[in-house]
């Protein structure tokens, strides 16, 4: 193959523009605009007609020829059979190779992707694959950043970011569970420590269950008590806003459904009526579920007695919650068993749950520096740390208080910390 006349028409190679040359299947291959040619000794022959245009990359090895064209990635096997990869993460590929059985794809929209037909993940500098985080969850020694899946009108976003996991000082993004496009708009996650099963809530495709062998089960209206909901005249799906795991099983909020509260326990589903179906967050304690009611339908906190099924909505009304505002944005329970409530007008604490369903309830508003605690702040997020300190995210930075919230420990802003913005979302 050193002859100077090997690459001309006398050897079967037309004098047309050739864009790529690559080894494949133990022979050189060249690619024109409409055909692939293979060298066989001193002669060339057409081994495949190309049905696509706008080639951007052709890479070969002994086993496969990888072609990138027209926003898709295709492979040609040694017997010259073509297969096109189908994955939502592959949107604008420009180059691709196969190494050690894995595809590596350079995509202008998704960055560097690695994986197989079963799924792809993004490879990028350690960090989430999106700046928009709806909710954080920590379980199984890892932090999960969930991008969310609905707008203010509670319509699906079509968010393909999947979820991001921070473990061993490294972020890893998962955008596909082999579900051919159904792993979108991820709103929440929960973990069963007994079975090592992870659950993911999606705003449209129900709940996904992933066991420790990465087997995926999708729960929706066809195989559970979950129901489809008509969110508007153009959108009907199975929206899940939040989930939490407890000793009873997995609690699920099917937003907008006639019976919005569901329980998965021992592979059996149950459902429970609530006075409202517009629930955006859920917190589990020993005897009660605490649910944040959507502000667009009045807001407040819906309390559910797990033993009796009795419910009550706590509001800013005196004797019926006494909250600073019906616009509740965050809740958490501290190490002393007190419920801390973040609202659009500061913070409140519910100390006792004894009469929470039927008796008079008035939250306590903490006093700091002779005024109501953060009464001028929107408390967008709240978390109690292992030291029983209270972390409060606002639209003006992060505040850290001691156990009783009567002593400020820190106030982090863009001016004194690495925060990129003072507006804390989660």
Structural commentary:
The protein is an all-beta fold and 426 residues long. The protein has strands at residues 20-24, 27-31, 35-40, 43-49, 55-60, 65-69, 72-76, 82-84, 93-99, 102-107, 111-116, 119-123, 135-139, 142-146, 163-167, 170-174, 186-192, 197-204, 207-210, 216-219, 229-232, 235-246, 249-254, 261-265, 268-272, 279-284, 288-293, 301-305, 311-314, 320-321, 328-333, 339-343, 346-350, 361-362, 367-368, 371-372, 379-384, 390-394, 397-401, 408-412. Strands 17, 18, 19, 20, 21, 22, 23, 24 and 25 form a 9-stranded antiparallel β-sheet that branches. A 4-stranded antiparallel β-sheet has the order 1-2-3-4, with no helix packed on it. A 4-stranded antiparallel β-sheet has the order 5-6-7-8, with no helix packed on it. Strand 38 and strand 39 (397-401) form a beta hairpin.
How does the SSE layout of this entry go?
Layout: E1 20-24, E2 27-31, E3 35-40, E4 43-49, E5 55-60, E6 65-69, E7 72-76, E8 82-84, E9 93-99, E10 102-107, E11 111-116, E12 119-123, E13 135-139, E14 142-146, E15 163-167, E16 170-174, E17 186-192, E18 197-204, E19 207-210, E20 216-219, E21 229-232, E22 235-246, E23 249-254, E24 261-265, E25 268-272, E26 279-284, E27 288-293, E28 301-305, E29 311-314, E30 320-321, E31 328-333, E32 339-343, E33 346-350, E34 361-362, E35 367-368, E36 371-372, E37 379-384, E38 390-394, E39 397-401, E40 408-412
Parallel strand pairs: 30-34
Antiparallel strand pairs: 1-2, 2-3, 3-4, 5-6, 6-7, 7-8, 9-10, 10-11, 11-12, 13-14, 14-15, 15-16, 17-18, 18-19, 18-22, 19-20, 21-22, 22-23, 23-24, 24-25, 26-27, 27-28, 28-29, 31-32, 32-33, 35-36, 37-38, 38-39, 39-40
């Amino acid at each position: 193959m050193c002859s100077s006349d090997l690459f001309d028409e006398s050897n079967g190679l037309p004098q047309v523009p050739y864009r790529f040359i690559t080894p494949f299947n133990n022979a050189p291959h060249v690619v024109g605009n409409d055909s692939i040619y293979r060298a066989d000794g001193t002669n060339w022959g057409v081994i495949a007609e190309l049905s696509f245009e706008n080639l951007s990359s052709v890479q070969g090895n002994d086993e496969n020829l990888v072609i990138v064209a027209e926003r898709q990635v295709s492979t040609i096997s040694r017997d010259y059979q073509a297969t096109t990869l189908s994955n939502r993460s592959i949107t604008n590929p420009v180059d691709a190779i196969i190494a050690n059985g894995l595809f590596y794809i350079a995509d202008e929209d998704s960055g560097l992707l690695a994986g197989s037909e079963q799924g792809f993940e993004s490879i990028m500098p350690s960090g989430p694959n999106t700046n928009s985080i709806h909710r954080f969850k920590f379980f199984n020694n890892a932090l999960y950043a969930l991008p969310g899946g609905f707008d203010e009108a509670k319509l699906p976003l079509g968010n393909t970011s999947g979820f991001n996991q921070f473990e061993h000082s490294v972020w890893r993004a998962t955008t596909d569970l082999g579900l051919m496009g159904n792993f979108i708009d991820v709103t929440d996650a929960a973990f069963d420590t007994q079975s090592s099963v992870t659950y993911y809530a999606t705003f449209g495709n129900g709940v996904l269950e992933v066991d420790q062998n990465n087997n995926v089960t999708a729960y929706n209206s066809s195989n559970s008590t979950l129901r489809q909901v008509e969110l508007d005249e153009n959108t009907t799906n199975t929206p899940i806003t939040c989930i939490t795991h407890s000793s009873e099983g997995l609690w699920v909020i099917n937003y907008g459904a006639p019976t919005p509260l569901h329980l998965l326990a021992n592979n059996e589903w149950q459902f429970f009526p609530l006075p409202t179906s517009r629930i955006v967050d859920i917190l589990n304690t020993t005897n009660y579920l605490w649910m944040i009611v959507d502000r667009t339908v009045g807001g407040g906190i819906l309390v559910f007695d797990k033993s009796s099924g009795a419910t009550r909505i706590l509001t800013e009304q005196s004797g019926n919650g006494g909250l600073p505002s019906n616009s509740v944005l965050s809740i958490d329970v501290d190490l002393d068993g007190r419920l801390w409530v973040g609202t659009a007008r500061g913070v409140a604490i519910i100390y006792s749950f004894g009469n929470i369903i039927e008796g008079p309830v008035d939250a306590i508003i903490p006093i700091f520096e002779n005024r109501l605690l953060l009464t001028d702040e929107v408390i967008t997020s709240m978390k109690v740390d292992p030291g029983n300190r209270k972390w409060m995210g606002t639209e003006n930075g992060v505040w850290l208080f001691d156990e009783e919230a009567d002593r400020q420990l820190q106030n982090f802003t863009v001016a004194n910390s690495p925060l990129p913005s003072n507006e804390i979302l989660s």
